[in-house]
Amino acid sequence: MFSKRIIRAVARGVRDSLSPSEADSRSWMVVDNLLSLDIACANSFFVYMSKGREVCTSGLISKLLGAGKTVAVPKVMDSKIMEPYILTRLDQLSAGAYGILEPNTARYEGSIDVCIVPGVIFDARGGRIGQGKGYYDRFLSANDVGISVGMAYSFQVVPKLPLDRNDALLDMIVTESKVFRR
Q1: Structure pTM?
Q2: Where are the domains of the chain?
């Protein structure tokens, strides 16, 4: 089996080869698929801020806010910790750690019903390989999250990934065409 570093590099290359219009079109299909699920009825969401060719989350965030949902997004506090910060409008964001948009609002102190997690590649068992810093693995293990959900393009889901004991498994992966449940 290949190392995570190699898997990450290959998967990132495939994802990043999408044209902007293809990424946008596929992202909307993933968002629509996610919003058609029962989890869309939840009250509070923790949503990653997308960068580059990741499944875009700004449309999801706009739809959740428009539906009156509580939305929190990550703010990196140091090299190991990110925390949820409340978001009520997309114009409350500015460039933060790693060039990812972060909120300039207050820390969110409530429960998180649904946690939307990024990844470079996922597996059908709920495994994921992210950027390699471990922020989401630590966040999921340290916080009470109702359901953890990965958003991915269909080509980002493989049968099985090499996982470590610190890798948090997700409850579901949502793509343009399918939902994988653990």
Answers
A1: 0.95
A2: 4-181
4-181 homologous superfamily:
NagB/RpiA/CoA transferase-like (3.40.50.10420)
Helix 58-66 × helix 20-35 angle, to 10°: 30
Residues with Cβ within 8 Å of residue 17, at least 6 apart in sequence: none
Share of the chain above pLDDT 90, in %: 91
The arrangement of strands across the sheet holding 121-123 comes to 128-129, 121-123, 157-158
The 10 Å Cβ neighbour count of residue 42 is: 17
Q: Report the alpha-carbon distance of residue 99 to residue 122 in Å, rounded.
A: 23
Long-range contacts of 6-13 (CB under 8 A, 24+ apart): 7/121, 7/129, 7/161, 7/162, 8/120, 8/121, 8/129, 8/131, 8/132, 11/120, 11/121, 11/129, 11/156, 12/120
- What are the tens digits of pLDDT across the range 38-79? 999 999 999 999 999 999 999 999 999 999 999 999 999 987
Distance, in Å, from the CA atom of 90 to the CA atom of 62, rounded to the nearest integer, reads 8
Question: Which backbone phi and psi does 118 adopt, to 5 degrees?
Answer: -85, 170
Report the sign of the C-alpha dihedral through residues 128, 19, 102, 72, in that order: negative
Of 121, 145, 118, 167, the C-alpha closest to 45 is 145
Which pLDDT tens digit goes with each residue over 88-97? 999 999 999 8
Closest CA to 143 of 104, 115, 118, 181: 115
